[in-house]
Every structure is written in structure tokens, then in C-alpha cells.
Amino acid sequence: MYVILVYDVNVARVAKVLKIARKYLHWVQNSVLEGELTEATFRKLKHELGQVIDVKEDSVLFYVLGNQRYTTRELLGVKKGGEEWIW
Amino acid sequence: MYVILVYDVNVARVAKVLKIARKYLHWVQNSVLEGELTEATFRKLKHELGQVIDVKEDSVLFYVLGNQRYTTRELLGVKKGGEEWIW
């Protein structure tokens, strides 16, 4: 499954969230990471993030694309992520 | 088509980008908006945003879901957007 992660967390926790998320996904732009995950790695990612965020204040949103074929991505402006997007 | 917009723009331009984006989409969390658009309104949104961002510095990413059926959304933490998500 292809996962798009978008986070909106307290600045004090951004570094921790980013460090965890980058183990599994590649950085696309501020507060956005993407990548192909198995069910197991997706569970691990959610578990690890759950340990560091404040669930009453922070928000981490996952869009899980069952089938990438139906999703296209368009960019306006500069491409920030270093990694090539694997579409 | 269902569109997820994620912006990473200079703080000086966030208010303008948000004002435009909110005309077409509903706010989900910081730097993320979503909503159902026609081709025409999607073109208008991109055109208007193109007038206010600095394409050499800012980045606005659109994920266009041709078919929402293949996409699920999961939230970790607090739900920030006010509008109910129309899935």
C-alpha cells in the first residue's frame, strides 16, 4: 500500500516525528512524507509515532492508497523532496 | 475528482494561499485541505494559487484521487478540521 503521511504536531515534537517517519517513508515537503509500506511496517510506524505525539494536541494523518493507479500528483512551484517519487 | 492539497509556502504567503484554497476546499489540518472539485474549479484554484506563490520557493502539492474508493484515511491524535469529512 502506498501511504501519504501529513503531520501537524507541536514544534517541540516535530524532530522526533520526522526521525521516525523517515525510517519508513521519504520526505516530500514540509509536513509531508510518502512511501510504499506493508501492513506490518505501517502498524510499526503508527505504533512508534503514537509513543511520541501528544494525542490531545498533535495530528498525524495517513492517506492510504489501495491502488496508486487512481491517484495522480501535481506540483505547483518548486519540488522540495530530494528522493525521486516512485510513481 | 477528490483533491488533497498540501502546501509548503513562505510564512508571508500562507494567509493568501489559505484564503484562496478555502474558497474551493475545506481545511483539514495545518497545510492540508481537501474537497471535491470539477476539472474547471481545479484549474481555477491552480491559476489563482499560481498568482500568489513564489514558484522558486513555495510548493503546493495536489493529490488527485480519481476514485476515492481506493483511498482510506486514518488519523493518529486529535482531529483538527471542523468540517465533517465527506468520504
From TrEMBL, chains A, B:
It is an enzyme of class 3 (hydrolase). Coiled coil: none annotated. InterPro entries: CRISPR_associated_Cas2, Virulence_VapD/CRISPR_Cas2. Keywords: Antiviral defense, Endonuclease, Hydrolase, Magnesium, Metal-binding, Nuclease. Belongs to the CRISPR-associated endoribonuclease Cas2 protein family. PANTHER family: CRISPR-ASSOCIATED ENDORIBONUCLEASE CAS2 (PTHR34405:SF1). NCBIfam families: cas2. Homodimer, forms a heterotetramer with a Cas1 homodimer. This is CRISPR-associated endoribonuclease Cas2. It comes from Ammonifex degensii (strain DSM 10501 / KC4).
